[in-house]
Structure formats: structure tokens, C-alpha cells
Amino acid sequence: MDWLILAILGGGTAALVAISRTRRRQQLATAASSGLEPTRDLAHVPVALQRTALWSLAEGGFERRVVHNIIARNGTDIAVTAFDLETLRERRGEWAWLPVEPPFRIGGVVSVVVCEVDRMFPHTLLKRAGRGDELADDPVIGRSNPLVKAVRGVLGLPPSHEAELPPDLPATPLALDLPEHWRVYASTLDPALTAPGVYAALAHAQRRDLVIELIDSLVVAYPAALDVSGADAFADLVETTLAIVDALRAAKLSPRGVEP
């Protein structure tokens, strides 16, 4: 029996080492394709991230493939951080939906881009139609935690819950002229969202299920239901987010509203 225990421990250690090496290779590949640098964690990201709908849906979690850099865009420096977030709910074998009209969910692992810019936004959430709107249950045999999900099913525990809606977001979308498939939620509309350049940037963002959150000095982007697979696709998500940031910063505000 002693040899069996040692074999199990050895196999487990080898598996953990292999996973760590694979994730390190993925982090380096993501950094190389996106022009960012590997970093340890999210300690440098403003705490406003924890007040997003993303954080409410995830209940926090565990970051990996974290990359960060300061990127010069149109005469200013923008702090960009990108990472995969394995949600705490995923570890518990559950998922949540945001109670807006219509509701949507996120996946167990979410790819996120956070840009810190030189202006402040009221909390705003833009959502493009996609798979997250279907509120489909996770398969019992999924990408992770199949045992936990199976046990929850045996115990009769619900697989999903309603997340807490951030207090500064309304449940109903605003009646705002947006490109097809987009909707927006905000208690206070930032005039920049009415700028033609922002409209064009959203129309150009073809990724289905994309969510954009504006909160304080942050622009946060993530595809709701699926994480981004591959370094090149992650780089594309970073570039899509930066294009939207560029459009938001380029919107010129005056006492009369937004100037084109």
C-alpha cells in the first residue's frame, strides 16, 4: 500500500507541475502577441474592478495568464491588464446570471481586459447579444470541477443563482441608439456614448457576447460565456478594447454635449 500512496502523490505532483508549465507558456505567448508583459497578480489594478457586474457574477476568483503594460495611444499612456479569471462560483460548481432585462450569465473562466484611462465614467454596462443571454446550464462533465457539479446535482442543490445587481446599474436598458445587437445599462448616461466614434467602434467590435463596463477610470471588457482561446485571439480582444477606449477618449465634450 505504501508504494501505491507514493505513486498517487508522485502522479499528482507531476500533474501540478505540468499544469503550471502549460499556464506559464500560455502567459508568455499571450504577452508576446499582445505587446504586454507577464506579471504576478492584479495588485496594481484599482479596486473599482471589484464593484463591477463581472465581480458580482464571479464572486471574485483566481486569475491566471496575467499580463500588463503601459501602452502609448494617441498621445497618452494607458495602463492595460489582461487575464483569465476562474470564478469562485466555478470552483463551487455553480454559475450566476445578472438580473437585468434580458439577463445574461458568464462562463466559469472569463477572459478580461482592463484599461485605466485619464477620465472618469459613471458605472455603465454595454452588452452585445450572444451565448450568455441563453442562460444555458453547464454540462455535468465540463471543462472543470465535474465531480463538484455532479455532487451538487445528487444533493439537489441548484446549479445557478441570481447575482447581486450593482446598486448603480438599472435592470432595464436605456433607449439609446446603438449598433445592432448592443444594449446599454446606466443610471447616468455618459455623453461620450452618444459620440459617432463610439458608435463606430461598437459596430466594428464583431465579437459576440462581448461586455464592456465603464466604472471610475476603468474600461473593462470580457466575452461573457466563453474564455478566449489562444494567444492571438487574446491579443485581438486587447486591441478591440483599446479601439473602444480610443473612441471614448476622442469624444469631445462641450456645454452643448458631444462634438463629433
List low-pLDDT spans.
Answer: 4-20
Gyration radius from CA atoms, angstroms: 20 Å
Please give the domain count. Answer: 1
The general outline is globular
> How many helices does DSSP assign?
6
Order of helices and strands: HEHEEHEEEHEEHEHEE
Q: How many beta-strand elements?
A: 11
Proportion of beta-strand residues: 25-35%
Mean pLDDT: 84
Portion in helices:
25-40%
Helix/strand/pairing class, anyone? alpha+beta
Largest sheet: 6 strands, antiparallel
- The first-to-last residue Cα distance is 75 Å
Task: Describe the model.
This protein is α+β, with helices and mostly antiparallel strands. The chain has one domain. 32% of the residues lie in helices and 31% in strands. The protein is built from six helices and eleven strands. The strands form three sheets. Strands 1, 2, 3, 6, 8 and 9 form a six-stranded antiparallel sheet that branches. β10 and β11 form a beta hairpin. α5 runs antiparallel to α6. It is globular, with a radius of gyration of 20 Å.
